[in-house]
Design goal:
Blueprint: H1 7-15, H2 18-30, H3 32-35, E1 41-42, H4 43-50, H5 54-66, E2 71-72, E3 77-79, H6 82-85, H7 96-102, H8 105-111, H9 114-120, H10 124-129, H11 133-139, H12 141-165, E4 173-177, H13 183-191, E5 196-201, H14 203-208, H15 210-215, E6 222-226, E7 239-243, H16 251-264, E8 270-275, E9 277-278, H17 287-297, E10 303-304, H18 305-314, E11 317-324, E12 330-336
Parallel strand pairs: 4-5, 4-7, 5-6, 7-8, 9-10
Antiparallel strand pairs: 1-3, 2-3, 8-12, 11-12
Helix pairs in contact: 2-5, 2-7, 4-5, 7-12, 11-12, 12-13
The chain binds S-adenosylmethionine.
Residues 134, 151, 155, 178-180, 184, 201-202, 205, 228-230, 243-245, 248 line the site of S-adenosylmethionine.
Length: 337
């Protein structure tokens, strides 16, 4: 919060958070950043290109520009700013599909029921949609695409950061547990040509991962195995990496997954959990709001270092180190106790 504003205005500014979020979501949906890639444009030009109402589009872009996403010049033409460049579709680390996920209808409908989650401890998503969020994304093609596209674009950014921060050269086999469409695993296999990988996720997901694995040229070293990590994970590997998995689940569920990894891995094997590690106390952290997303959508949560240490301990693992990356995520490494 800005300390210069009077307290009531500080509260007002924070409380309005949903408004810039939705305005940026509309700009992302309309592909405004892509339209500004070759130079500034007026709201009139942009409204013709996006079939929107000129004055209303102007007001949305002016509001976005007030928080640094696009800027408006003296001729009332909008141009890209560094944060707006993250909304371009085809740049490494593009946030366009992540913004589309975060500002989607189902997101607002779910957040509207935060009080329900606070009163019951249960995911509001299940109340609103009558099913769990993963089930919904697996069965609903349109929402599933929004979710998977966002995970892949987020994964492009976080995978690169993980590869920079961790040395995988000591391993000969690695399992990506809940590896989704396989971008992280494919990136690791590309960098380490002697390494073999197993992509493990629900059967329909690993099925759909074939193209990506093929396109990265690692299909001959990457097995795809379908199944639930609550039942078991493929046995006999040196490393079990889980990116954005453990934060989806409560302690009991997470212990089942971590126990399955400990039982399956080679004696000298390592568990690598890639998640945000929450700072203690009042320190600002985007993770403290991502934590609420976990409360609303699943039974998961973001955790502090002490909480990860305790969770690992209960799963018979010793937390050996936490490696920060240039992304908001850290690599939490564990070995068998
Ligand atoms: C938040 S996504 C993370 C995907 C990937 N690790 C990444 O970082 O992009 C969670 C993944 O867990 C998978 N998943 C959920 N429940 C599962 C289960 N019971 N067994 C195996 N995979 C599961 C989902 O299909 C999804 O791919």
């Amino acid at each position: 919060m800005s300390q210069e504003l009077p307290p009531s205005l500080q509260l007002m500014q924070v409380m309005f958070g949903f408004a810039p979020s939705r305005a940026i979501g509309v700009a992302a949906e309309l592909g405004i950043a892509d339209l500004l890639q070759d130079g500034p444009k007026s709201a009139g030009e942009l409204s013709r290109l996006t079939s929107t109402h000129e004055r209303s589009l102007y007001r949305v872009l002016r509001a976005c520009a007030s928080v640094g996403v696009f800027s408006e010049d003296e001729d009332k033409r909008f141009r890209l700013t560094p944060p707006a460049e993250s909304l371009l579709s085809d740049v490494p680390g593009s946030l366009r599909s992540f913004v589309t996920l975060m500002t989607n209808d189902f997101q607002y409908q779910t957040w509207a029921e935060l009080l329900y989650s606070v009163q019951t401890g249960e995911p509001a998503f299940d109340k609103v949609f009558g099913t769990s969020s993963f089930d919904y994304f697996w069965k609903n093609e349109k929402a599933g695409k929004v979710f998977n596209d966002a995970m892949s674009s987020n994964s492009a950014f976080s995978s690169a950061a993980v590869l920079e921060a961790y040395d995988f050269s000591a391993f000969s086999t690695i399992v990506d547990v809940g590896g989704g469409h396989g971008l992280l695993l494919a990136s690791i296999l590309k960098k380490y040509p002697r390494l073999r990988g197993i992509l493990y996720d629900m059967p329909a997901i690993v099925e759909a991962a074939a193209d990506l694995i093929q396109s990265q040229g690692v299909a001959d070293r990457c097995e795809r195995v379908g199944g639930s990590f609550f039942d078991s994970v493929p046995a006999g590997a040196d490393a079990y990496i889980m990116k954005h998995i453990i934060h989806d689940w409560n302690d009991e569920q997470s212990l089942t997954i971590l126990n399955n990894c400990r039982e399956a891995m080679n004696p000298e094997g390592k568990v690598l959990v890639v998640e945000m590690v929450l700072p203690e106390g009042n320190e600002p952290s985007f993770g403290k709001f991502l934590d609420l997303q976990m409360l609303l959508y699943l039974r998961g949560c973001e955790r502090t270092e002490a909480e990860y240490r305790q969770l690992f301990g209960k799963a018979g693992l010793e937390l050996t180190r936490i490696l920060p990356t240039r992304s908001p995520f850290s690599i939490i490494e564990g070995i068998r106790k």
